[in-house]
Amino acid sequence: MAGDNRAARPALLAAALALLGALCLLSIAVGSRQIPLDEVVRALTGPRDTEVATIVWDVRLPRTVLGVLAGAALGLAGAVMQGLTRNPLADPGLLGVSAGAAFALMLAVAVAGITSLHGYIWFAFAGAVVAGVAVYVLGGLGRGGQTPVKLALAGIAVTFLLESITRGVSLVDPQVLNRYRFWSSGSLAGQNTALIGQVLPFLAVGAVLALSLAPALNNLALGDDVAASLGRRLRLVRAQGAVAVTLLAGAAVAVAGPIVFVGLVVPHAVRAVSGPDQRWLLPLTALVAPCLLLAADIVGRVAARPQEVDVGVVAAFLGAPFFIALVRRRRLAEL
User: Fold this and answer.
1) Which of 156, 183, 191, 305 is deepest in the core (most CB within 10 A)?
2) How far from chain centre, in Å, is Cα 249?
3) Residues 130-161 pLDDT 10s
4) Which CATH architecture best describes the domain 2-328?
5) How far is 123 from 111, CA to CA, in rounded Å?
6) Could you report the per-residue pLDDT of 289-302, keeping only the tens digit for each?
7) Contact between 81 and 245 (Cβ < 8 Å)
């Protein structure tokens, strides 16, 4: 079976890339106004002075690009977290990045009085980074430095603390509640290319760090002792992984909100068909995860017309059954 997986991996990569391209075109075509695919192609390749071209370039394309970037970031972050902690239930939220972003957003609205997305996105990103650093520091206290269990427990503790404060403040401040409720539902709508360009460098650095971790994650899967005997510096590997996850998940969450299950579900689905080799698992996840997010966004646009269902809600609806099945598996601890 392993040999079959190795032979099929290039084909899987090509198929995932083709599926992503098809979903990108469909994402641009579907919305409150349906645009035929041939008109989408003409709008992308021709002059931009038509009404269709304006819709495509100013509304649909930024939303689609954000879906691709956020999906790839969340998928990569989830795969790295699962490999880093050897915990099959790990997702980007385990490092506290979502809770940190929400807490900083609350401070931006309640204390600084910032209400625009362009203003509080940087608070959210900074909160995600600070929370990730705090989890990494707390997980390194005591003997033995960072371990998968200590990192997970530190992430849970920081998450619960920040979420309790955020929800407490939002209950007594209606303005914070409205902003928090809108952001926490997870949405790709209403973004523009300028905002995407601002977070793109962080996503790029995080992706490079994550993909370069693949050989080390393969060694870590054999256990800390074996990885150390193979020359891996465990603290450095975990630090690099924490930085990668924080940059990827922090930027994605700050822009699109805390979209759940993408970083949990996709690495498992990819692992089932490609095998556990991180050198293939990570790039495949980076292609398949945005497919799931774009598909969820498309479903959200057509499920309740003329209104839209936020992509975070649809992604949770699609991912919850998989999560339940995953928890019920007997060999849950095996990656």
Assistant:
1) 183
2) 5
3) 988 888 888 878 776 667 678 778 888 998 99
4) Orthogonal Bundle (1.10)
5) 12
6) 999 999 999 999 98
7) yes
- In the chain, where are the structural domains located? 2-328
- Position 70 scores a pLDDT of 94
Residues of the chain with pLDDT under 70: 1-5, 7, 117, 144-146, 148, 326-335
- Name the phi and psi angles at 191, rounded to 5: -95, 160
User: The pTM is what?
Assistant: 0.88
Q: Does residue 105 contact residue 125 with C-beta atoms inside 8 Å? A: no
The answer to whether 196 and 66 have CB atoms below 8 angstroms apart is yes
Residue with tokens 């095998």: 275
Segments of the chain assigned E as strands: none
- Start-end of H helices in the chain: 2-29, 37-45, 51-55, 61-85, 97-110, 117-139, 148-172, 174-184, 193-212, 214-220, 224-229, 234-256, 262-274, 278-302, 311-328
Residue among 127, 140, 76 at smallest CA distance from 97: 127
Integer distance in angstroms from the first to the last C-alpha of the chain? 16
Among 319, 333, 321, 286, CA closest to 80: 286
